[in-house]
Amino acid sequence: MNMFTLLPEFLQTALSRQGITEPTPVQTRAVPPALQGRDVLATAQTGTGKTLAFLLPLAARLAENPPANALILSPTRELAQQTYDELLKLTDEEHPLPAALIIGGDNIHKQFAALRKHPRVIIATPGRVIDHLGRKSIDLKNTHYLVLDETDRMLDMGFISDMRKIAAVLPPPRQTLLFSATLPKEITALAGEFLKDPVRVQIGSVVSPADLVLQEIVHVDVREKLPQLLHELNTRRGSILIFTRTKHGAERLAKQLKLYGQKVNALHGDLRQNRRRQVLEFFKNQTVRILVATDVAARGIDVPHIAHVINYDLPQCPEDYIHRIGRTGRAGAVGSAISLISDDGQKWKDICKAAKFTVPVKTVQKTIEPLPEPKFVAQEEGRAHAKSRKKERAKCEVRPSKATQIAKELLAEGKVYLPQGGELRTPAPLAKTAGKRGENLPEKTAGPRREKPSAEPAGTRGAKSSFKAAEKHVPKKVSTFRKASAAARVLETPEETADKNPFRTVKVGISKKKLAAKARAEIRRPQKKFSAARGATPNKWGKRKRR
C-alpha cells in the first residue's frame, strides 16, 4: 500500500505537484508511526528522503491540531534553509502553514518581525534559538512537536548543551522525531533522554556509504595535489564538489583554480549568510561548475546534479567521509568520489576501518601534467548578474515626472521662454542699455566728490560698472528648469529694477525668538539726543555709575 494515501488531500496534491508519487523506504517506515503521534528514531544514509519523512507527518499533525506549534532544529544554516524551502512547497493558500527561519548570520531584526507574527513552525539552528531565548523574543509555550535533524552532526558541532536547554523549555506532552545518518553511542544516550518508547527505523547500513558511488584514491605528494586536481577537473564532466579541511584552504584553493580558468566559488563558515546563499544558488543553477567547501557542505545540501566529489583533504572524523561522498549518487543517480592522499595515509586507514566498504575502492595512478600559465577568466556569475541587470533595466520604462511634462508642453506651445546657456552667460539686452543708463546716472548731492583721473570716457566707465552689476545677478550655471525661468525673469525686468537682486537672502544662525527680541528692544529703546550747546558727550550718557 502506498503510504501517501494516509496523508491529507492537500499534502497529496502538493506531492503530485512536485512529481513525487512513490515514497522512499525511510518515508514508508517513519511516516505512519509519526502520524499516530509516536516518537521516532530513524537512521538512514544521505539522499534517502529524510526531510520529507518528518515534514509530511508534521504538517498533517499541525493541520489536525491548530493550537500546537513545531520546532525543527538543524545543524547548519544551509540545511535549515533547505528544510524551509521544502516546507513551503507543501503549503498553499487554502492550507497555509506560517513558518519562520531563525538561523545565525541572518538579520536579527528581520527574525524579530517574523517571530512577532507567531509562526506555527520554527526552523532554526540551536545557537540562534538560545540567543532568542535569552532576549525573550521567542515563545515556545505551545510547541508540542520537536524534530532533531542530522542529530549526529549537531553532536559533533557541540550543540548537545543547547539541545538540552531547548528541550527543557518545551512543555509536555511532546512528540519528538530524531533523524540521523549514523548512530554513535552518544545518539543512543540522547535518544533515551529525549524520546519516550520510540519506534526504531533503520534503512541500510549506518556506517557504509552509498552503493551507487564509485570510490577512487590517488597517492600523490603535497606539491602534486594541485596539478592532479586540475587534471581531474579537466577530464571529468558535470558539477564537482571539492572538500578541504580548513576555511583558509578552501578560499586559497578557489583563488588558485580561478587563475587557471576554472569557474569556481568557495563556501565556508566565514562567509556572510547572504553570500552563502548566493554561492549555493550559483552552484544549484549551474552558473558555477565547481564548488570548494569545508565540511559545512557535507551535511544536508541537496544538489541532485553533483556528479563528482573530490576530497582534496581527508576529513578529521571518519564519519564525515561518508557524508562527503553522500553529496553525489543521490536519489538513485550514479556518482563518483576520488580522494587525494599525500601524507595522511593513517587517516585513510581509519576511514576504511570505520566505513566498512561494501564496494571495493579503486586505486588510480597519478597523472601529473605541467601547470598551464595562470590566466584570469571572467566568472560566469558576473556575466549572469550583468545580463539580469540589463533585462531589469529594459523592463523598467523611464517615465518623466509631471513637472517635466508640463514644462515641455509649455515650451512647445511657446508660453514659456527658456533662455539658452549662451544667452544667460552674456546678457546682451543689459549690455546694450548699460551705456545709456551710465550716461543718465543720478549724482549724489551729499557733498563735493573728487573724481580720480582716468583716461577712459565717463560713458564707458558707467557702462562697465552697470554690466558688472548685471553680471552678478546672472547665474553662471543653470541646472534646473526653475533656475532657468528665474534667470529669464531677471533678464526681462525693466531697467530701473535691474540693479536690484531678486533673490532674497536669509541670514542663517539666529533664531526667530532672538530676531523678535531684537526688534522689541529697538522699539523700546529711548532715542537720546546729544546737544553740543550743553556740552554733553556720548561718553557721559553711556557711562555707568559705579557704587
Please state how the strands of the largest beta sheet are arranged side by side. Answer: 3-4-2-5-6-1-7
Strand content: 5-15%
Question: How many separate helices?
Answer: 22
From the helix content, strand content and strand pairing, which structural class follows?
A: alpha/beta
Per the principal axes of the C-alpha atoms, what is the gross shape?
extended
- Residue stretches low in confidence (pLDDT < 50, at least 5 long) are 426-448, 450-457, 502-506, 530-537
What is the correct CATH architecture of the largest domain? 3-Layer(aba) Sandwich
What is the number of E strands? 14
CATH class of the largest domain: Alpha Beta
Protein architecture, described:
The protein is α/β, with parallel strands linked by helices and 547 residues long. The protein has 3 domains: 3-203, P-loop containing nucleotide triphosphate hydrolases (Rossmann fold, 3-Layer(aba) Sandwich), CATH 3.40.50; 213-378, 3-Layer(aba) Sandwich (Rossmann fold); 411-433 and 469-498, no CATH class. It has helices spanning 9-17, 25-35, 50-64, 77-89, 108-116, 126-135, 151-156, 160-169, 185-194, 225-235, 247-259, 273-284, 318-325, 345-355, 380-395, 402-413, 421-425, 428-439, 458-473, 481-491, 512-524, 538-542; strands at residues 40-44, 69-73, 99-102, 121-124, 143-148, 175-180, 199-203, 213-219, 239-243, 264-267, 290-293, 306-311, 335-341, 362-363. The protein has a 7-stranded parallel β-sheet, with helices on both faces. It has a 7-stranded parallel β-sheet with strand order 10-11-9-12-13-8-14, with helices on both faces. Helix 6 packs across helix 8 (160-169) and helix 13 crosses helix 14. It starts with 8 loop residues before the first helix and ends in a 5-residue tail after the last helix. Residues 426-448, 450-457, 502-506 and 530-537 have low confidence and may be disordered.
